[in-house]
Fold these 4 entries.
Entry 1:
Amino acid sequence: MIQKKIQVINRLGLHARPAALLVQKASKFQSEIRLVKDEYELNAKSIMSVMMLAAEMGSFITIKAWGEDEVQAVEELARLFEEKFGED
Amino acid sequence: MKNQKKNRIWLGISASPGIAIGRAYRLDREEIKIREENLSSEQVEDEILRFKKALNEAKIEISRLKENIAKKLGPEHARLFEAYILILEDEFINQQIFTGIRNEKKNAEFVYNRVIQKTIETISLSRDEYLKERVADITAVSNRVLNRLLGIMPQTIETLKTPGIIVAHSLGPGDVVQMKKGNVLGFVTDIGGKTSHVALLAKSLGFPAVVGLKNFFSSLKGGETLILDGDEGEVILSPDETTLKNYEAKRERLLERKRSLAELTSLTAETKDKKKIELSANIELLSDVDTALENGAQGIGLFRTEYLYLASSNLPDEDEQYQAYSSLARKLHPQNAIIRTFDMGGDKFAQDAERAYEANPFLGWRAIRACLDLPDFFKTQLRAILKASSLGNLSIMLPMISSLEELLKSKEFLEEVKTELRGKKIPFDENIKIGIMIEIPSAALEADSLAKHCDFFSIGTNDLIQYTLAVDRTNERIAHLYQSFHPSVLKLIKQTVEEGHKNGIWVGMCGEMATDPRATSLLVGLGLDEFSTSPLAVPQIKKIIRSIKFEEARQLTEEVMKLSDSKDIERFLDEDYQRKFGNENSIRI
């Protein structure tokens, strides 16, 4: 298992569009991928779960992955957050 | 009695600007009522199939909307509908429905609605304003599925045949996408917020809209005359004659203004006696490029790169920077962009925090000073700009130059990077122009020698004023001493332009003074070749430039330069501006 803590820095947080990008990206990997925020831990391949995470700007999320492509999965998902999902 | 009914004003939230006047068209949607039904064991698998079919049909509907919006507004907006499709495909949710139907032997709509409501409740626990929007998204999708399951064909926008203003309890993005110009004049809803997708789409499609009117919908019969003021976020129900006339006039004024702005966009910034001025815009986000061009900017006179740093938690690496600069170059081509190298306190990019504290940061280790001390950092940025320059429309601008030595040193770094790129056979613009900001008095005074070593000057008035007058702008006790039109500042500008021209280079201005309409004639008269203003100010400045004569501006400048008191200068310019443009109400309304 590999994990990385990241911060949500796009202004609107994980609303529908970023959530869609995140789920599409996560679904490309074999690994099981989960997002952890506070006491919640949710499936990164489910958009409803990601939207339920209530991740607003400034909040911290830990990305966890288990599987053959776990390193790449965590790296690419973290990058999405860093690039603010292409939003301003 | 009748009078009391007239002119009832409802206050809501402005979602999209503009004025619409027309009849109310109530979009009546049955409230979805869910009944709980028990199934026999034999019915269970059919029920699951029925649910899958409803999902599929909803998916087809949304895919159509997605294509529609992609065509109209581009793929960016279509992404929202991709999210909607993912909601329908969400295995985490759908598995719960399948299990629910199987284990409890309940009907699909009952199980589906319960799961969705539970999700919505979880989201609603958060206090975040934007999260409400997520609830609206989920409801927009789940209602489609429920309507399918219940066999309800909801009234759609398309049933509106004569022009009218849509009034609904709530609308989804899918509804807005279906609105046709000509038929729909605008819309109002009881719920919704300023930042909703619905508001965003309304703005992009140009429909005036007011949302958050609480219980307006239920108090309306339909067919009433409405005035929708999207700028103020108001709706006036059954207006009287006078109010109606006033708003019709206001609507005409807005349209007229839009038309004249649109006309202005394609025109050049040229004085009546044919002196051409380059009019560009200052931006910091790639998304501002469109606003700048829509407003008729001829290029980007200042692209601030500090944002790249602020946007990322780490120092932006070469690739990140390259991506940003090359997108800028592509988006703007064939017009030009001037990229200013990092202009901020050194503490922001030095690794050792010890250097962070400074008693006088504005006189301290910042901008070009810090960049020259951190060659790797600086060269990374130069390399990224050069690599993005192969279209030939990028220039480099150095901030806070106070001496020739700094300019020469920077150029040495630039040459080193060029040599390196040539060695690696990486293409770049061999003729890339390099200019400097004139924002420190010493640079203005040494403009002659600086001009011999660079391709252009751009005057940064904010800092030039602050450094010339020794006034910290943020200190309220001395705010009155910050005088933009101080004769010393004008003399430095004049000297900079003259020395630049003597050496055959162009001189522009990207400071706030370039955006001040009162200063336009003066700056044209001083011989400025380029103005770079905030994107939204471009039309106004252009309009002024097109209505003056260079010769007259020069005479005005001569008069101004005779004055020795900044208050007199300001009054003089004010009066001149009021005389020429005052009665036009300028371009603002």
Entry 2:
Amino acid sequence: MKNLKTLALAIITVTSFSACSDNDNPAIYIPVNEEEVITTITTTLINGASMVTLTSRDVDGDGPNAPVITVSGPLSKNTVYTGTVTFLNELQSPADNITEEILAEGDEHQIFYQAPASFGSFTYTDTDFNGKPIGLNFTFTTGSTDVNGNLIVTLIHEPNKNAVGVSNGDITNAAGATDAQVVYPIVIAD
Amino acid sequence: MWCVNSFSQHSVSGTILNQHSIPLPETHVHIGQKTVSSDMSGSYTVKDIPSGVIKVYVSYIGYKSIDTTIVLTSDLTLNFKLQQMVSDLDEVIVKQIANRHNLSVREEKIKTEIIEKYSNQTLGDALKEIAGVSSLKSGSTVVKPVINGLYGSRVGVISNGVKLEDQQWGTEHAPNFDINSAAKITVIKGASGLQYGGDAVGGLVILEPLLVKKDTLFGKTIVNYSTNGRGGSVSSSLHKGKLHGWSWNVLGTFKYMGDRETPDYVLSNTGNREANFTGDLKYAAKKYDVSLLYSYYNAQIGILSASHTGNATDLYNSINNHVPAVIDDFTHSIGNPKQQVSHHLMKAGYNWYFSENTSLSVQYAYQFNKREEFDVRRGNYSNLAALDLELKTQSANIDYKYQKEDWQFKIGTNGAYQHNVADPETRVRPLIPTYEKLDAGIYGIANYKMSNSFAIESGMRYDFSQIDAIKFYQKSRWSERGYNADFSEFIFGDESSQWLTKPSFTYHNISASVGFLQQFHHEWEWYANVSLASRNPNSSELFSDGLHHSTGVIELGDLRLQKEQAIKISTTVLKKWSALSVEFNPYLNVIKNYMFLQPTGFETTIRGAFPVWEYRQTNARLAGIDFHSKWQVTKRWSHDLTASYVSGRDVTGSQRLIDMPPLTLNNKIQYARKDWHSLLLEMRSEWVCRQNQFPMNNFQTNIVIDGLQLPVVVDISTPPPAYHLLHFYSEVKLKTFGNAAAVVAFSVQNILNTNYRDYLNRQRYFAEETGRNFQIQLKINY
């Protein structure tokens, strides 16, 4: 019986020593700092003094709320726009600029711009250190007809930039994983 | 003197006891030319023995026989104390008490020789040897056992008497156990192993290490090389046995494998590594034994590169392209995504044998499980785990066994304290929150042998469980779930866009089992059992909320989930002829509040659109049959067949249940020749039908073609076609020096290099299964 008591005592001792409470660890009371999340994508199209801003903002990430999309105004026909796109994490304060990370890892990222052919054409104006496009900078030459529809901007992580058409902006063979995809309703008029 | 006395007659009498001074009735006593048996008090008398030198032989099954000569000159009293025989002790006691977890359920076992074949694979692969056990896989190295269609939290894995707590809720989490450290594997289908818990809705896998009770020292080394994966494993063990005194075992395993290959391409990033150790030390005395055990499992598992997808469009492309998006050259190195898991298990045990019939066992165990999952991330985050969980579990068990005549009782109690910490440093909202869990249980089991051919067993168990979690909910999610109305008391803090909550749940559960075993003329055995199991929702079912990257689905838990209760009726009929044995095991498992993931809608995020699957409850019914036959055709040829079929239905929603194993047939033809170095040749055919009973969970998404969004159907439901595989195995035993023996085995898996996909593989959307593999194994016993 003595052995049994010793063992019981040992169990109680070990249990009470290691039974730590969550109160000991303050870190778990702080919400996870989601530094990688992209909340906001802003596409800016500039021609001289005219500027059109397309924004998609999703502050709850994977949460149930859909992104809020705003388009500042219509685009003009037969116009060459200088385009840029920025990615922000507005869950951080001040907002974290993810564009810089994408630029730093340009060879692992590519942004694709898709719209029907009548909307015009997109040309990449930046390159990664392999001479392949990243897509943070581009020109958008609008077409000659009045149209309205969607402009789709997609950020792909680890695309295969050597696959057929990918360097020219064709997403079909890009593979990789979609880190962001936004559908902007746009209008092209006079 | 000699001459005179040789003509006189004497009698010899005495009592026969065992080492604990308990009388042994019916002992065989052979003195001179006469034979008698001892009576109930262990006494015997042999009369009319001529004087002189005579032989005495006393034997009793399970005890060391006494074989001696005496010189008889007068009436004599000879008392004997018989020592229990060690090898037989195993046979007898183990069979009656330890080995039979439940009399009324036919237990399925895998022996050491079979386990050794799977030395280079996983526990989940070895378990498929048993009819009715299949596996749920993620790639080729993460293999979870499925018993009669159920897996995860519904299947308990008991290692060295300790219930493994290794985040077993996850479909991509394989049991953290080194297959090489098991000497015997027992599967109990259903919840009848009440001493281990009442929540095994699916069943139990009981892993037992090698027990050496003879006074001996020996070792074993198994070396494997596989061509598919271009790597192998080494497992070495040493065992020191002793009847009374110190005994110990040590075992170490290393595994190193590179990318697997299908018949047509490399499965990039599917290598794995393992480094495992198990050691135990035991001191055994006549009335008690004390043991200490430590085991360590460490695995690094690469996850197929192509299975990392972003949104529903990516998933659609993966499914429709039929070929993985990433195929690199073969490599041994492992990149992201990968899993890095380690599991420590420490156990102290004490067994007290009060008498032949009464024993008490006390056990304390501490488990530490660390799971890190690395994902494809931007920048420096690649080296930071996206999921980092530390699960500590302490458990104590007290079990008491008592046997009296034809009755046997087992009672016991257990308590466990579990603490899970989800490291917030991952910078990703954790799938599983930080929580504390307290469990306490008590059980009683009785069995009664009414006659030599009929025994009944019944048991009951009560479990208490409380879980206290700390979780941040996005306010938008909290409202969308409608938790405001039901769970506002859980809110503990306001952190801008999130609520800090402390959900707490308490459960009281009853589980039970009743059944019988009837033997007819030794050739027929009939087992029947009804069991009631209660399983509480696990942390994933309660708290999940977020995107599951490998399936491209947002998975949502539900705080409203109730416990799941299953009633399983199972019967086994076993018939043995001289050369043939046949076993039928039909069963019906009726599950109330069965928890499962159900597609419920869509959510759009900045990554695009995702289907939403929620944990829901329904009433389910699983019915199936397992079949096993063994036929010794001739002295050298034998045939073995296992077949299993299960049908799972959502009774309320009249849908089929997802992930039910399809009809499977395994045929094995064996040729054995003892005189040719114990040559063994084996051909196995594995035939897996297409699963035609599946729920339709396909969904629509938009893909962009020529700048326009077009709706397409993402077919995640349609099961892959049936497949048939052939496997070959051969071995010879070679004598080396002295006692050392070596076994050389050569095997081929998937001989025909068949292209196939498996319905129960989570990565079937992305890639095919592995192609042909040649494996060579060298096993040395010394």
Entry 3:
Amino acid sequence: MPKIRVMPTLLFKDVGLVKGVAFDSWRRVGSAMQAVKVYNMREVDELVYLDITATSDGRPPDFETVDDLADECFMPLTVGGGVRTVEHVRRLLKVGADKVAINSAAVEQPALIREIADRFGSQCVVVSIDARRRADGTYESYTHAGRRAVGKDPAALAKDAEAMGAGEVLLTSIDRDGTLQGYDVELTRLVSDAVSIPVIASGGAGTYAHMAEVLREGRASAVAAASMYHFTEQTPLAAKQYLRAAGFSVRL
Amino acid sequence: MGNLDSVARAIEECGGRPVVTDRAAEIESATHIVLPGVGAFGDGIRNLRARGLDEILREHAVVGGIPFLGICLGMQLLGTRGYEGGVTEGLGWIEGEVRRLEPAGEDQRIPHIGWNEVAFTRASPLFAGVDTGHDFYFVHSYHLVCHDKEDVVAVTPYCGGFVSAIARGRILGVQFHPEKSQRLGFQVLRNFLAL
């Protein structure tokens, strides 16, 4: 089995890295280049870089910034935000992204997933799904950085994306995002059970135990986190040491 | 064809002077050839053929003996035939077929994404200074099934085990991404550049 992956997430907004709570209240947390260099030195498993306002602002991905970051990034890099065409994907891969995450475009034009998969292979298409729990306990999917409801539950959306050729799901709980209160394990389990492609759990990590919980109970293949690295003393390396001690197969 | 920049940057970091090209003259004057590749097999081989690169690479790598490294899809393209995006003839330098990974148990998810072990089946200069069983980064759904066991240098325990590195003379291939595998990946690239 591949090792479970512990992945820092970098959220980019305007000119710097930010971190918010429930997709709101963004705080500036530093420069992307500095973060990439640190994570590269620490040999993290993989890095996720999301430009969270590109779609809402009607911008394409910032290829130059990604190019600069990728030049210092000798670890796997997933890039998302504003990806709407096959040409966007081609350029992101060319400047050094290994995988490309699509969120709004995956919902609005699912055929794009198929086009990207046919051209570049499924392995580089990550469908990013943002979800929120409804009052009745079911889930709703969102696009446009959590502002537009899709009218479809995340498990169904993930299943459709897989059928179109998506290679991975980046699943974020909007409710838990930035709260440090733990992943939405139930949400993760629903989606992991619905598909046979890997699922990256995101949103809510506050402790290493939260990671163990979503890997075991949620059947996630990887755990993404941002706030817990930005605002606490915890690190990806210590997370993996904890997870190894808890019986998981990790790369150390 | 995908991740050219990453591979070029990593080679630079390893002391090489990479030239990204599809021109015969530049390939002719190279001391080493790397064929990277993120993409689907059918599309990849059509791109090579459309530029006449299949013949140019054969002339220099197979006939001329310039050290050649195929990475990920670049390794798969060396096979006889691929099944991704229709059935397509490969370069045919290594006898074998490129087939989809088949899960060998529950929770074996495809694509195979992440860090996994590379276990050597025989010694290769490509892995000088690297111990067997270390983790390298993979991101793929297809794998090369080699007909001749002699071509296999390393295997990885997933989906019943698949070939993760090959060598026939100075024609080498790795299914993982050395350019994204940090310290050990760079060691593999440096070993290649030293050939």
Entry 4:
Amino acid sequence: MFILKILIRNAFRYKLRTLLTILGITVAILAFGLLRTFINAWYGGVEASSASRLVTRSSISLIFHLPLSYKDKIRQVDGVKTVSWGAWFGGVYIEEKNFFANFTVDAKSYLELYPEFLLSPEEINVFLRDRKGFVAGRKLAKRFGWKIGDTVTLRGTIYPGNWDFILRGIYRGRNETIDETQFFFHWDYLNEMLKKRGSPRADQVGFYMVGITRPDRAAEVALAIDQTFKNSLAETLTETEKAFQLSFISMSETIIMAIELVSFVVIIIIIAVVANTMSMTYRERIGEYAIFKTLGYRGWRIAGMIVGESMVITLIGTFLGIALTFPVAGVVGRMLSNYFPVFNVAEEAIYMDLAASLIIGLIAAIVPTYRSIRIRIADGLRRIG
Amino acid sequence: MGVPLSYSVRNLWTRRLTTILTASGMALVVFVFAAMLMLAQGLQKTLVETGSSDNAMVIRKGSATEVQSGVDRYQASIVETQPEVAIGEDGQPFLAKEAVVIISLHKRGTKQENYITIRGIGKSSLALRPQVRLIEGRLPRLGVSELIAGRSVAERFEGSGLGETLRFGLREWKVVGVFDAGNTGFNSEVWGDADQLMQTFRRYAYSSVIFKLRDPSQFDVVKKRIENDPRLTLEAKRENRYYAEQSEMMAAFLRILGASLTIIFSLGAIIGAMITMYAAVSTRTSEIGTMRALGFQRKSILSAFLFEALLLGLIGGLIGLFFASFLRFLTVSTMNFQTFSELAFDFTLTFDIAWKAIAFSLIMGFVGGVLPAVRAARMNIIESLRAT
Amino acid sequence: MTPMVEIINVSKSYRRGNRTIPVLVDINLNIEEGEFLALMGPSGSGKSTLLNLIAALDHLDSGAIRVGGIDITALSENELAEWRAVNVGFIFQFYNLIPVLTAFENVELPLLLTGLSRRQRNEHVEMALRIVNLEERMDHYPAQLSGGEQQRVAIARAIVTDPVILVADEPTGDLDKVAAREILELMDRLNRESHKTIIMVTHDPRAAEKARVIRRLEKGFLNDVHSQDPH
């Protein structure tokens, strides 16, 4: 690895300049990785969606409810395997900035539909038997220090009053794309109370989650469900879980696009600055390369040295940048945990980082390489002086 | 007297490409910085201007937004009898009972759904919001399925322009007018008769009651009374305060996002500036030696290079700010997480943001340039004269 | 009459690693006002070092140097800078002009350290450029001037503050024969007509011809005086 040794020594001849160049690349890669992670997080829900689940809701908007009686009709639609239902509860835990998603569900069918929420059989048993019980994701429980058996009170915003729940299960996600910050409790608990109060919201469901037998039949089953309720007082809109998640994201599309655009441009500028530096260094050493030529080195060998040195610097910077992406993403993820339950550095981001670094390294080396191959020995030697 | 300023300026000009590249890096950071601040500012400005401090808004206790709230007719009529409610020109209480829901509409030309706020209004609703003016068509008649749309909705959403028809709740609704609400959130709403809308959506309670305060300073009195009344489960806020709170979560999000992006990018820009300035010092080593030999003090050399770096930052800052100012022509519309519905707002450039952006660029220039400038100042005369 | 430059028991060495290399050993030299002295010697003999010490660019290890009666070895760094600005004119082998300043501005540079008004500065600069015969090119940048012309600008810069001594380090080293001759004649004229004290380091024998006194340095030691007739 003699060549590698020369490359590294050369790279560190101008220690400060090399260090700064490496840092520049580190920052560019870090920024890029972070932004991809960010975009990824936005699409987080989409990743975790299943192709064999449909969401049925009011065709007017999500805030309108559907009658509970629909559940039987939906079950009868061809292709439907499981029907669960629930509603967004929107409760506040102590104060509003502790925001997390909480909703009521028909527990048994819901757990059937969501095998990716891992719970021990005992936890499931106890939860199903305790009407006041609730299940929380691991990250959520950790955030507030809840233990099994704790009583947690939520202040209702849609359903007024203070509601007590007892933690009966803490679920883990089957893989890292699963949201571990959810809070769900029994539909019956809510509905019974509403009926007792004589509330018009009793027996009204926010959404139906429908499990289908074959994912490739999703479109026709969705259509069939909506047909069933067409021209009724509460028309429905059924779509795959993925489409449902995507529709939310598209509402914030402007911001996402803006971020992507800006990030690419900024990174290009940083790259340009860094490439300019590397060009500066090579320009200064043109004389040396002329000497190599007099010693008999051919053009492509010199090119190899330049590109090699460029790649060494770039790769060091890239690895540093990738390494830093994880802790930084951790910090940012915590700050934004209210908005993004899942904030992971994607594998894909890392591959893009490496690709980007390859491009940086090569582009930085192009002009100097071209010049060094073509330089005439005499001109080069004169520059040494 | 020190090294002439023209020395620094001309050196930046001589190495134009490097200067442009480095300044562009800083310009972009300043652009992102300013854009984010302008976005958060625009969001808050829109929501702060929505609503007046002379109006009180009453919603159900604990509901963060009108959509979640429910005020039944009985409770609404109790609010109506409060002495602090101003009396309108017609001798009636200057008060409106409104019902707010969210529906989904398609953007023109796409199948993309967005959630839009529909507000069921009463007779006094328009008068309670003097910022709202009808610019096309006419007001909806009571008892009929007619709507008026805010300008932002009418322009961008299918079926919501003047003369068009929206279909929901098994009924057709004709859009008979378009209103302009200035810079406020009302521009992203559609209004219609409250009773008609409540019938359609089978809502039996209003969402909120809004009234003008006879004497704005009396707000706390009526607030206390309403909130302590055992017959009521309501809370009261000044209308503008209510809307300002709607922006908090989103504004915080934009600020965190803006801050993290800016910090990381600014590191990159600073590194770029450092590389540039170190290279400048290195190339001009013999010049530095010459000037020291001629009798210029170390601090003059330091100032000259620091000035060059600051100038670089300033150029970057001005360019970035220049381009950021064009953002003012752009309207952003996105879903406000808190209200769950569309909100359109502008980028707002204030003097505060402008000087912060410039200060930021100068700081970047300084941090990038200080170490190289110190190196230049500390050079040994003889050694630097020997360099070519 | 007191000599312009008094060099008294001056020694200087450089440290390289743990070794100490003597560069100047116990130098004693007087240079009279109006003298034109050439310092010669093989490379490494210490002649440039001695020049740098006289011009207060460097510090000696032992001994003292007085220029115009002032003990420059006792001055602080800032005081030295001030002293140099007014009392020393520099002529370098590679001209050392600031590339982004015009000829006029380069010559003006030392004057910026004085308290002169703009009008006064302009007068001095124009006069200096007239002496070196470059008035018409004063708005040109160094890149637009030939080697000889650049060196003339450098000389104008060196005399513009009317310094007591001119130090020149290989002034003709980078010039062709014709330009070199022009420069040497100019320096000769400055010495004879304006009585400028000139100390020149060179190993160009033609340059040495113009000088009135030649001293040689070898391995840090000063050899005997060789006076020569003004040709």
